[in-house]
Amino acid sequence: MKKLARIQAMNGELVALDDDIEQARLEMSMLDHIDDDAQRDAAVSGTYDDRAGAKMTHADVVRISTHIAALERSRAKIVVKRDRLVAKLVEQ
Fold it and tell me: Which residues contact 81 (CB under 8 A, 6 or more apart)?
């Protein structure tokens, strides 16, 4: 039964990760729009303030993209471990 408890714990982790990924994707959507506007403003005006703002918004997009990728890697690792445990449980 230890394996079953571990599988259930992993399922809980996956649910939490799915929530985190969804939240990060929503944030990414918002940041994409803000970044698009900032990049457009910087291209049109060319002012230092607009270029600096565009650089900051782009950094935010890169940061959240990296965060999403890390969450997805963590999720994939847990799925592999869980699937191995399920296979062992079925073999018994």
Answer: 10
Q: What are phi and psi of 47, to 5 degrees?
A: -75, 155
Give CA 50 to chain center in angstroms: 28
Handedness of CA 4, 9, 10, 11 (dihedral sign): positive
Task: Please state the φ and ψ torsions of residue 46, each to the nearest 5 degrees.
Answer: 70, 5
d(CA 24, CA 58): 16
**Per-residue pLDDT reduced to its tens digit, 38-59:** 999 999 999 999 999 999 999 9
Judge if pTM exceeds 0.85: yes
